[in-house]
Amino acid sequence: MITTSQLTFSGAEVKVKRLTRSNMFRIMVWVWGSLCMILAGVVVSQFSKNDVKDVPSDRYELYPACTTLLRSQVNVEMHASLVYMSMAAHFDQNGIARKGFSKLFRKNSEEEREHAQKFIDYLNLRGSKYTEFNIDMPERTSWNNAVEALNEAIVLEKEVYNQLLHIHDIADIHCKDNHLMDFLENEFFKEQVESIDSFIRHASVLGAMGNDNGLAEYLYDQQLQEKNED
């Protein structure tokens, strides 16, 4: 026969066991979570040390890798400027007489030269300097039609843009240079994307009229002249 006291004691024992198992589970979860946090902290700490160990202590100075890329970008911008200058000279010949396209490419030549100067100024601002010009000359001096020149301009602008993005990536991952990233973002990215878009639109409209349609090219050139005069 089971008495009331025995029932009460047994119930209390079961309750204690349940509480003990619950607490043990909570403790195990807490311990496991703590270990994970400690291990994660060690990994992050080690990664941070390895990631920035080669960055100069004087953060005003440009990191050598970024300095090299900026100097190279001066040559990239000057090469683009010379290509557009060559295009402008081609379309301004009296045997071609496409003043509108000539002005379009001359304007882009001036913009690329200004970009090169901005990079030189930035190197000086950060305590570095530009050492020497090593510019690739344009590979051609004539084009069969305006669409061909526009398509080449699109390729060129994309190459320049990709190089700018590469510098930004290196400044972020390797050089840890927020000021350089800000400089690239504010001074170049928006304008570069707009230039690509503009050339694509010119090529699309003119190409739809026919690549070898001299009359269409002439009429479009007239529109460009009026636009450049505004």
UniProtKB/TrEMBL annotation:
Keyword tRNA-binding: no
This protein's UniProt keywords: Iron, Iron storage, Membrane, Metal-binding, Oxidoreductase, Transmembrane, Transmembrane helix
Gene Ontology molecular function: ferric iron binding; ferrous iron binding; ferroxidase activity
EC numbers on record: 1.16.3.1
PROSITE patterns the UniProt entry points to: FERRITIN_LIKE
One Pfam family of this chain: Ferritin
Transmembrane segments: 27-47
A biological process from GO: iron ion transport
Keyword Magnesium listed: no
Coiled-coil annotated spans: none
Summary of the function given for this chain in its UniProt record: Stores iron in a soluble, non-toxic, readily available form. Important for iron homeostasis. Iron is taken up in the ferrous form and deposited as ferric hydroxides after oxidation.
This protein's name: Ferritin
Originating species: Caerostris extrusa (Bark spider)
Lineage per the UniProt record: Eukaryota, Metazoa, Ecdysozoa, Arthropoda, Chelicerata
